[in-house]
Design a protein that fits this description.
By secondary structure, this protein is α+β, with helices and mostly antiparallel strands. It is about 20% helix and about 30% strand.
């Protein structure tokens, strides 16, 4: 099992008809097996992506019953108001069902005159573009999104974009519970 720091602009797919860059082109080769992504990150999202050569393990880690916490840093245009915060934590209706953040906290003070604010958010589902759609549901737009953590595994600060590292046995065990 490996942790990959996915940069923006890479797809999490084996084959792109348009010939765009994919994460699989940057992973170590396997003999008699292939890498399977544990969940996905969209084209414009960077950060932690877990991959394994075990379909059984990938399915187990993605199963909704385990509901691993996913933590993201989201740069939002504007500031989240108290009412927007209340709604995002209580739950909003999306076309594919209700969704909410478990946590939502400001990460840092904005630069003088800056229109963007960084927030650390967490949720337990991994639906398509869920973080972006939650913010959009309350009238805010995400301009940058980085996955920082999947369950007990965090994106290592020294893992540069486009690089991977093998998970330690204790990290894999923490995922398995």
């Amino acid at each position: 099992m490996i942790a990959y720091h996915k940069p923006e602009g890479q797809l999490v797919t084996r084959d792109d008809p348009q010939g765009r860059d994919t994460v699989f082109a940057h992973l170590p080769s396997l003999r008699g097996a292939r890498w399977i992504a544990v969940g996905r990150l969209d084209l414009n999202t960077s950060g932690l992506l877990l991959l394994t050569d075990s379909g059984e393990l990938a399915n187990r880690l993605m199963h909704p019953r385990l509901a691993f916490v996913r933590v993201y840093a989201a740069r939002v245009r504007g500031e989240v108001s108290l009412e927007q915060r209340r709604r995002l934590l209580a739950g909003v209706r999306l076309p594919d069902g209700a969704a909410r953040f478990e946590r939502l906290e400001a990460m840092a003070e904005p630069a003088l005159g800056g229109a963007n604010r960084w927030y650390r958010v967490s949720l337990r589902e991994g639906r398509n573009r869920e973080v972006r759609r939650l913010f959009e549901a309350v009238g805010l737009q995400v301009s940058r999104l980085i996955r920082l953590q999947f369950g007990p595994v965090a994106l290592a600060r020294d893992l540069r974009r486009g690089r991977w590292r093998e998970l330690r046995p204790d990290e894999v065990q923490a995922l398995l519970g």
